[in-house]
Design brief:
The chain is built from five helices and no strands. By secondary structure, it is mainly α. The longest helix is centred in the N-terminal third of the chain and has 30 residues.
Length: 164
């Protein structure tokens, strides 16, 4: 017998994606500029831009009771990106931004939400190629906007800007 995707789950499961984003990108917001050399403005704008996508996906998940393709695609890629954080740190043999919350928040949230959706009979609407295309394009736009904002910030402060 399948459990029902009730009002509590309708809100809690998609909102867990938003919480996972806040934790992981909060860590990145605090650590990315010092550990990568990216200007803080680049990081700020990039994370805010990604927040728009994650917020839209969360709202789509609430609206569709977890069935929306945008919600499921973003959940899939955001969860999987946690593995990338861990792999990056293993390969570099050091801390990399986002790795503290990847195994403690991102991966457990991904497992819990996908398990909950499956157990309550929500059909799988995610499609990996589409998910990678949408989130990859959004990530590229986030970095482009971040780089633009950082160049603008440097030029307004009288510092010579570099092209990326």
């Amino acid at each position: 017998m399948q459990a029902e995707f009730d009002n509590r789950d309708r809100w809690l499961v998609p909102l867990s994606l938003w919480g996972s984003f806040l934790a992981n990108d909060g860590e990145e917001w605090l650590t990315m500029a010092p550990t990568t050399g990216l200007p803080q403005t680049h990081v700020d704008v990039g994370i805010a831009t990604m927040g728009v996508l994650l917020g839209a996906a969360t709202l789509d998940g609430i609206r569709t009771r977890g069935r929306g393709w945008l919600y499921q695609d973003v959940q899939l890629v955001f969860g999987a990106h946690g593995v990338g954080h861990i792999a990056g740190s293993v390969l570099l043999r050091r801390y990399t931004t986002g790795v503290a919350t990847a195994p403690t928040v991102v991966l457990p949230q991904w497992w819990w939400s996908t398990t909950r959706l499956r157990r309550t009979g929500v059909p799988r609407t995610s499609h990996l190629p589409r998910a990678m295309a949408v989130t990859g394009a959004w990530l590229a736009m986030a970095h482009a906007l971040g780089a633009w904002a950082a160049r603008r910030d440097r030029s307004e402060s009288g510092v010579r800007s570099k092209r990326w």
